[in-house]
Amino acid sequence: MGFAILNGEIIERVNAFVDVEDRGYQFGDGVYEVIRVYNGRMFTAKEHLRRFVRSAESICITIPYPTEQLMSLLEKLIQKNSLQQGIIYLQISRGITPRNHAFPVGDVAPTLVAYTKEVDRPVEKLKSGVKTILVEDIRWLRCDIKSLNLLANVLAKQKAAEANCFEAIQYRGRDITEGSSSNIFIVKDSVVITHPSTNLILKGITKDEILRLCTANAIAVVERTFTLEELMQADEAFLSSTTGEVMPIIEIDKKIVKDGVPGPVTRRLQAFFEEEIKSKCGNL
Ligand SMILES: Cc1ncc(COP(=O)(O)O)c(C=O)c1O
Q1: Ligand 1: which of 43, 154, 202 to mutate, judged by most atoms within 8 Å of the beta carbon?
Q2: 52: domain CATH number?
Q3: pLDDT score for 230
Q4: Which atom of ligand 1 is nearest to the CA of 206?
Q5: Above 90 in pLDDT, residue 1?
Q6: Residue 184 to residue 189: CA distance in whole angstroms
Q7: What's the CA gap between 259 and 172, in Å, rounded?
Q8: Residue 75 exposed, middle or buried by CB count within 10 Å (0-12, 13-18, 19+)
Q9: Which entry of 76, 117, 125, 146 is annotated as an active-site residue?
Q10: What is the rounded (10 degree) CA torsion for 187, 191, 195, 198?
């Protein structure tokens, strides 16, 4: 895509360079967001930017612009790139300094970068559901921060890719935490269950939308930890993420979930979620 944001300026993407001593590049010392764009409009942008600010604050980085200014900059970027269906990738790092683990002393400006990418909705997968594998969650204890450090997530997703699967579902001890780039829900006896938003998972924007949609539509829902055994015996299971929306799981480690097709509660939540997109961003 033609244009990118670098430190508050919209410039040609080919000119958007970052120094080799940027701390994001050397230490993963920064945080990021991915915001969905439908019909040229950002979906749940306020929630994403709130999380961006919160993630940055939790590692002592201050976003150098007010949220409203960042929002209008992102809107301009969408227009410049004529983006209809896609995503905005946004990241901030602690800036450029001679390499040293401790924070730089003095005034070092953070580096803020954003660019867009065309991404279609995964319509076929949303209909048919996806296959997954199980992997041990080997991440740190601040998974609530949307950190640039994604090595464990990368390794987990690679295992899924090698197994021809869409996602790797992570477990810590006997408890299921989340996917490598998604949250996970199960349905048992018509109750929707998902891991509470603690330090062990990312508090997904899509997860929160789904919780809200459950409550608004009288679908029983509870945030509590659930085990590997509960996952394997669930009536339904699905993932949630900005790009994957409400994604049915039909297989886990080669074992078929219930009947091997997306279940009724998952289907209802998909329909409610689509309505939500349409009401905010127009017809799909
Ligand atoms: C580890 C992890 N969990 C959950 C999610 C889902 O979050 P969201 O719904 O905000 O995209 C993501 C998204 O990338 C993620 O990386």
Answers
A1: 202
A2: 3.30.470.10
A3: 98
A4: 9
A5: no
A6: 17
A7: 27
A8: middle
A9: 146
A10: 160
Q: Dump pLDDT digits (tens) for 27-51.
A: 999 999 999 999 999 999 999 999 9
Are 211 and 185 spatial neighbours (Cβ–Cβ below 8 Å)?
no
The reply to whether 99 and 139 lie within a common domain is no
What pLDDT digit, counting tens, does each position of 144-162 carry? 999 999 999 999 999 999 9
Query: Could you tell me the CA-to-CA distances from 112 to 17, 65, 83 in Å, in that order?
Result: 11, 10, 20
Q: Are strands 221-223 and 191-194 parallel, antiparallel or unpaired?
A: parallel
The span from the CA of 231 to the CA of 80, in Å, is 45
**Do both 33 and 100 map to the same domain?**
yes
Query: DSSP class of residue 200?
Result: T
In 89-245, where does DSSP find H-type helix? Answer: 123-128, 151-162, 205-216, 228-232
Active site residue 258: no
d(C-alpha 176, C-alpha 59), whole Å: 26
The pLDDT tens digits for 249-282 are 999 999 999 999 999 999 999 999 999 999 999 9
Using one digit for the tens of pLDDT, what is the confidence trace for 54-83? 999 999 999 999 999 999 999 999 999 999
Range of the domain at 10: 3-118
Residue 15 structure tokens: 């000119």
Residue type (1 letter), 173: G
